[in-house]
Amino acid sequence: MDSAHELLVELARRHAFADLGALAPRVLPDGEEIAAVCEFGQRLLSLDAEDFAAEARAVPPDLRRRARACHMPQTPREQPRGALASLRPAYGLLLEVIAVRWHRRELSPMMAAVHIAAEYLPLLAFEPVLGHAGDPVLWPEGLSAAGSRFGVIGDRDCDHTKAEQSAANRTLRVAVEPGEGWRAYFDRQHSQVAGALATCVAGCRNPCAAMDWVAPSAREDLAVRAKVALMFADTPLVRLRHAAPVGHGFGVPSPEEVLDAWHRSRAALDHNPVGHGATLDDDFPLPGLPSLFSAVAAAHVEPATLLDDIAAHLIARMS
Fold first, then answer.
1. Over the stretch 204-244, which tens digit does the pLDDT of each residue have?
2. What is the pLDDT of residues 273-292, one digit of tens each?
């Protein structure tokens, strides 16, 4: 029994929630409750943001509350707004997941987490001026004011791609759609809206009135942070995942390849004070990544301890 208990504790320490959840009911008298907590932890580790708020009575309320802060609302009216109110808790969880996956040498899901962070990083940049994290229910009226080409499909003067134009058009009306349409939008188009907003403020060759709602005093700073967010999505680190589509027979990047790609990415980003954040040494497996996210967010963003705290709770329960 002692050796079995030690094995289960080690699985918890390694955040191996799926394995621990499968084994616990066979060994422990309260194994079903342990398995329920493990399912909760595995959803977080897998970044299953749709289900972070799923009922989990075996999980302490504080852990559930912190997970709900990263949850993506599944209807336009759902409360609280979770990751649509602020993306900072979600980016803390992303950083924690990246670190855990790195230490476990699970580089395919680690690169998937990096890719997700890149897709939504422009919304982290926009959060200080929006007052939320890109909630379609709360878009400023200025996005669709007279003279704005945001969401106008087929406008050749707009620098958005066809996919971005379609996503921008959809985001302005999805708040009145039923839950099914709302969820389909977030599955397929919300990340494109993030990139479209960044293009509007930081890279448009033919500016329209879409960004006139941003206070002039905040526009320059927002443009720099949004530009760095777009640059991050085009760094060697993020492109590394596109170059190795795992599951299609092309293999997984090695730790050395990841570190080399990040080294080149840091040099590519270091062209302004915001991008310079990537060059800082903040004791993270990809040094400078938390500092970069903080600079883009204009707020402190650090790795969460949610997975560690779930592991500690499991160990305490098993002891």
1. 999 999 999 999 999 999 999 999 999 999 999 999 976 54
2. 999 999 999 999 999 999 99
Identify the CA nearest to 45 among candidates 89, 114, 85, 98.
98
Please tell me the pTM assigned to this model: 0.95
* Ranges of each domain in the chain: 3-95+305-318, 141-212
Residue 188 banded pLDDT, cuts 50, 70, 90: very high
Token pair listed for 66: 């912190």
